[in-house]
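Good morning C.,

I know you're traveling, so I'll keep this short. The sequence:
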Amino acid sequence: MCQSQAYKKWYYSSDAKRKGTQARAKARQKKLFAAVWRIKEETGCMLCDEEDPVCLLFHHTQGSDKLIEISNAVRCGWGEVRLQQELEKCVVLCMNCHAKVHAGVLKCSLVGGSNVKLRF
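The tokens, ready to paste straight into the viewer:
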């Protein structure tokens, strides 16, 4: 029996095991979400004075190799190191500035990403 088959057998052998695994995954997701939210709260938009985290998002800078959107990385449960590597390619922008950057109205001269760090 290969390792993946053995894991599936273990995983489905008990509801308690499965629910425990799901609970740990959900707790990890909440921890990552809180850390990313904290970055938005502390940083604010890099181009204007918007500070409300609800209006902020992560913009991958020009020339960076975007692997995934930050929200999807959190939802998929990426590890802290891998998520930090992806965050280093980003700057925090409000939704309006982000749209203007993509439309070419504003220039995001913050090449090289931000200096935001995950903190738990």
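Safe travels,
E.
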